[in-house]
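Minimal example, chain plus iron/sulfur cluster.
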Amino acid sequence: MERLIFLIVCLGAFAFFFKNIFRLVATICLGRAENRFDNLWSRCGSMFAYGFGQLRVIQKKFGYNHYFLFWGFMTLVLVNFEFLLNGIFPEFSLDFMGVLYVLLKFAADIMSLVVLGCVVLAIARRLFFRPYFIDQTADAFFILCMVGALMIAYFGQHACEIKLGHLEGGMKMPIAWALSNFFSAESAGSLARVFWWIHALVLLFFMNYLPYSKHLHVLTAIPNCFFRSKDMVATVPRLQFKKGEEFGISKVIQFRWKDLLDFMSCTECGRCQEVCPASNTQKTLNPKEMVHQGKVNLFTNSKAVFATRPADMLAPAPKDARMSVPLINGSDKSVSRKAIWDCTTCGACMQVCPVFIEHAPKIVQMRQHLVMEKAEFPEELIALFENSEQRSNPWGIAPSDRAKWAAELNVPMITEGVQAEYLFYVGCAGAFDSRARQVTTALTKILNAAGVSWGILGNEEKCCGDSVRRLGNEYVFDKMAQANIEQLKKYGIKKIITYCPHCYTTLKNDYRQFGADFEVMHHSELISSLIAAGKISPATDSAGRVVIHDSCYLGRYNNIYEQPRAVIKACSGGRAPAEMERCREKSFCCGAGGGRMWMEELDGKRIYLERTQEALRAAPDTIAVACPYCLTMYEDGVKDEKASDRVKVKDIAEIVAASIS
Ligand code: SF4
Ligand code: SF4
């Protein structure tokens, strides 16, 4: 009779579980198509390294707690498989595995204790030393208590069975064996089945509770690591501007299916919130919340979509599917407009996310909807969009002034027939901004001193469109990118040097979607190679103690960390630059990326101030940057901190130019 009851409970639980799995798969299928089935070997490698190996999880010390919890569970999967089958077929056992079975039972015994320890630690952390980026939720405690109950029931059952002589204890199951001493033969007889049933019911309930809880990631995180983007996502998907299409994303089902899987995979670890410059400076945006809102919005709306076509659940949602809750600014199940505009697209969230959720492209795609469908964007962007489209620079300065800086420098003009190996793509800041023009001049000095074959496009150069794209004006960007590529091809350009990391990433990564394949070099790459080749030899150490800042679009998005450091080292008598607390991959944004350069920063602390204060804590004589936006932000920060008389902000090209004769 007991077996029959368990059989019914077990079948019911598994039927419900697989129904939920099917629903989750169907929900993911609502998203737009995208091929994430390429490079299967490398995807498997990624899944083993980051999903099973938890490589990102253990980048934080407490991540080891999760690591052991995870591996404890993995060890117990086989044992629980035997446990459930054994409940239906009492003769079933995995002992045909021989010595492996003995090892498995031993490992399960030890790992159950490890898991119990991890649960106690996790509860204590949440109660007594909870980091601010971890939410105190009843759900988390409930899950931890369930895991704890599972382990206690496991030990209780095995200890009783050892006491009763049904199981061999000793060193084969040392923990359960030790615990068996706490039971008398009578109590073990009655408690063995009680523990068995507790174990069985908690296990089956836990399995079915997962899809409804914050621990949904137990089911989705490993597939998300498998389907992750191979490299840091440095761009957004290109749009096809077809008549009748809606541009950007206003409904959750307009995301691609991998984005929907992202929403379901969040572990709510809060690491993205911890590193986000917006969250760190009291803005509305919290990337963890944004992902959670995406998940809640998805589950709420998917119900309505399924209700309209119950027989065809595995197809993408129809374009005109009605959503009961809007994705943007509807309620707590939506993302707020403010949050969408707060993002600097710095990528710090994506760099730390243990399950490779891609936040920034989602935010940019929601901006696309607000800009192109609704014309709802911060007022200060009106001028930026108009200037970029009509005058091809953010300030709206006459395009005929673009090459003014070069007038007295005898700069080779590719547009006048000069044959050059490299095009120096000056960029709008380098051409129009008076401070950035000093960097442009410094770079021309270096190029000439090293005998590089180079030239510029003069007044024919146009804005690359970086800010326009990150701000969601994809239509204008599309036109700018196509016109630029056509022009660059017309002049036979193959190799490009940029001084601005935003131009760099746009020409290198974004333009690739439009068929471009230029060899793009950031000036830090070129200068470091010129120094290494002995073409220039920095002699004087003019910058004093230098602290270095990693621009997000240079470091995080394009993995250029060593070259700027090598340049400074060569100019500082072999001394490496000082580092800030948050450096390299962990670098903190200056606040200007993602088009935020052109927007007011009204809420909370200024991001540039937060970063400048960090730089000043390193007691530098010079803050070295390799980006015109960072240059502006740090100069503002140093002024605000009244440190201009003792600390200079310089681009690495200026440091080099000052140290060569
Ligand atoms: S990209 Fe940067 S600013 Fe945007 S959500 Fe991520 S960490 Fe925050
Ligand atoms: S999005 Fe990633 S980093 Fe942020 S809370 Fe979720 S799992 Fe953690």
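The mean pLDDT is 94. The beta strands are 422-425, 454-455, 495-498, 519-522, 546-548, 578-579, 622-625, 648-651.
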